[in-house]
Amino acid sequence: MASIITVSGLTKTYASGFQALKGVDLEIEEGEIFALLGPNGAGKTTMISIICGNMRASGGSVTVAGHDIVKSYRASRSAIGLVPQELHTDAFERVIDTVRFSRGLFGKPRNDAYVEKVLRDLSLWDKRNNKMLELSGGMKRRVMIAKALSHEPRVLFLDEPTAGVDVELRRDMWKLIGELRATGVTIILTTHYIEEAEEMADRVGVIDKGELILVEEKATLMKKLGRKTLTVSLGEPLHALPAELGEWNLSLNGDGCEIEYVFDTQASRTGVSSLLRRLGDLGIGYKDLNTQQSSLEDIFVSLVHQEKAA
Ligand SMILES: Nc1ncnc2c1ncn2[C@@H]1O[C@H](COP(=O)(O)OP(=O)(O)O)[C@@H](O)[C@H]1O
Ligand SMILES: [Mg+2]
């Protein structure tokens, strides 16, 4: 598939001397959903700001739809829609006006049919005459997307589209992004939630401390990252792990009140049900079970170790 964005040797050193991007190379394919996954401070917003022309790079180059972002700023920028991390809107403006206005900023002629389609796609058509202050948080987010799509961009950037929103709204947003991709727009989203990358992306790039550690098909990456920790809260504390539990890689924590088991969610046998059966056979009662995805932090540590070992 053809690349729609090419990033080569991109660096950014802020005036403070802090190096936020350390030579990033990346190709985005037309029509894909690409998730840029990384912890806070990794350089995600910096990278997006440069690609969108809101900030200058210190070195390297970027082309969007074949246009160099510096030499052909207007052409490259008009191929991009950006939903920034911080939402800002005029509280008293009507939905349809703010979307039309955004389109006008790109010098596009008024096109009521297109604006209607965007508002309908985002389930905002019924709210088109409402003022922004009358909308819920989820609707405001959708208006930001409508504004970003107003000038018919080929690429849509969503910078942390669900940071700080509740679970329900996050699911709505994921569904919406999935539907947008069906319109043919290429989508690049940044996130620090593994679940979000897992749910949405065709490909994932992991960024940490200004370096793109890896770029991979989602399925391949999830295989590498698919580790979970099962915590079994025991009814009665154990002094030591019985030898009969030796075939699982367990640790005894919390003064003997918790057994922890780290397992691979992608394995054909995770070992979870056999472990629980064995606990039953041994008469070890438990009062609660809890599983937790390995945190991004853990994963970075293991990825970075793999890189060094390789
Ligand atoms: N204007 C700035 N001046 C100096 N440092 C900055 C500036 N903006 C961001 N940074 C630093 O650059 C790093 C990357 O920031 P950012 O791109 O916002 O990360 P992310 O979006 O991944 O959370 C952070 O350590 C941040 O503190
Ligand atoms: Mg950011």
UniProtKB/TrEMBL annotation:
Q: Which residues form a coiled coil?
A: none
Entries under CDD domains matching the protein: ABC_DR_subfamily_A
Q: Where is the ABC transporter domain?
A: 5-234
Record protein name field: ABC-2 type transport system ATP-binding protein
Question: Which Pfam family, giving just one, matches this sequence?
Answer: ABC_tran
Which controlled-vocabulary keywords does the entry list? ATP-binding, Nucleotide-binding, Transport
Look up keyword Nucleotide-binding and say if it applies: yes
Upper classification of the source organism reads: Bacteria, Pseudomonadati, Pseudomonadota, Alphaproteobacteria, Sphingomonadales
| PANTHER family listed in its UniProt record | ABC TRANSPORTER ATP-BINDING PROTEIN
MF annotations from Gene Ontology: ATP binding; ATP hydrolysis activity
Look up keyword Amino-acid biosynthesis and say if it applies.
no
* InterPro entries in alphabetical order: AAA+_ATPase (IPR003593), ABC_transporter-like_ATP-bd (IPR003439), ABC_transporter-like_CS (IPR017871), ABC_transporter_ATP-binding (IPR050763), P-loop_NTPase (IPR027417)
Top-level division of the source organism's lineage: Bacteria
